[in-house]
Specification:
332 residues; alpha/beta; TIM Barrel; two-stranded antiparallel ribbon; 10 helices; disordered C terminus
């Protein structure tokens, strides 16, 4: 009932002769709004090296049909459409298995010049072996990653929640295996005790970046290390060693807008040094569908994003709070 009430209320409020494009804040006169226009995204030249890379953690999300993808679109065509809207993506599937060379070449062919892929290191390395005795698998993974050529972004090494100070010797030895002269790497810690000067110094000496997440950092406080700023906005996760389990989906619209503005300011500061590469990726459980907060980040950074006409209006009832309506549609 709440869903239908919100939907009816929103229909009454929509203009009859124009659709407000929430991302670029302008009205486009249309006779009949269509969700599936031929053109998706804004034509642009390839991003420069200093352009912030904004995207989501994955692109093959069935729930994005009607928002980003036409209903019935074949999964193997989603990346090409995604890459018209965002200039980077964090590939989560590599955490579960090393992709085939054919798959990686397909990713390259489906994306425009200047697009970047951030790849998540396999969990067999980070979570099962906990970085020990994993040189052979690391080499196999990096050999496949190299096939992305100039579209390869950072390699994300996500440490498990229980990876604490006692495991630092394994991290130190593992970092020696990384070919930092030819690839960029970053480490995400989940244990609060590892966000320390000593760990930062270790990563810096090895030429590796440190990931910032909304679980352990205040909005806007983004690490810049070894020429890399890498932000991950995640949904509810338990913080190891504490009773804390932040849940961003419970934010009000005002809190979401404020937090997004602060993260954007942090990304902007990180990019002030032209030697830094800046990345930000939003999970699909952070605050509604990941494409919507990611588009909001791009908007604040002066990188206009145009999704399908009326796409946001299809997302009735997803607001995290009661009768707040389509939260992202109102903000974006």
């Amino acid at each position: 009932m709440q869903y239908e009430a919100r939907k009816a209320k929103h229909k009454m409020a929509q203009p009859s002769t124009a659709v407000l494009d929430p991302v670029i804040d302008r009205q486009k006169p249309v006779a009949t709004p269509s969700l599936f226009d031929e053109a998706v995204g804004i034509p642009h030249s390839p991003p420069s090296a200093s352009t912030p890379r904004i995207g989501t953690q994955g692109w093959s999300v069935p729930g994005w049909q009607g928002l980003l993808y036409p209903t019935g679109l074949r999964p193997n065509r989603r990346l090409a459409i995604y890459a018209r809207v965002f200039n980077s993506v964090e590939v989560n599937s590599t955490f579960y298995a090393i992709p085939s060379p054919q798959t990686v070449r397909g990713w390259y062919d489906d994306t425009p010049p200047g697009f970047k892929f951030a790849l998540k290191a396999p969990r067999s390395i980070t979570h099962e072996h906990r970085l020990r005795e994993s040189g052979r698998e690391l080499a196999e993974f990096l050999a496949v990653a190299e096939l992305l050529g100039d579209k390869l972004g950072p390699i994300l090494i996500q440490l498990p929640p229980g990876f604490g100070p006692a495991a630092l010797p394994a991290l130190s030895e593992f970092l020696r295996l990384l070919p930092v002269d030819s690839m960029q790497f970053c480490v995400e810690v989940r244990h609060p005790s590892l966000r320390s000067p000593g760990v930062r110094s270790l990563l810096h000496r090895r030429g590796v970046g440190m990931v910032t997440t909304n679980l352990l950092a205040e909005p806007g406080d983004i690490e810049t290390l070894s020429g890399l700023a890498y932000l991950r906005l995640l949904g509810a996760r338990r913080v190891p060693g504490t009773n804390s389990q932040p849940d961003p989906s419970t934010m009000t619209m005002e809190q979401f807008a404020s937090e997004t503005a602060m993260w954007t300011a942090g990304l902007r500061r990180a990019g002030e040094n032209t030697g830094n590469n800046v990345y930000a990726f939003v999970s699909n459980d952070y605050y509604g569908p990941g494409i919507l907060p990611a588009a909001q980040l791009k908007k604040h950074l002066g990188m206009p994003t145009q999704l399908r006409s009326g796409a946001f209006y299809t997302f009735f009832g997803y607001a995290p709070h009661g009768d707040a309506g389509p939260v992202q549609g109102q903000l974006l």
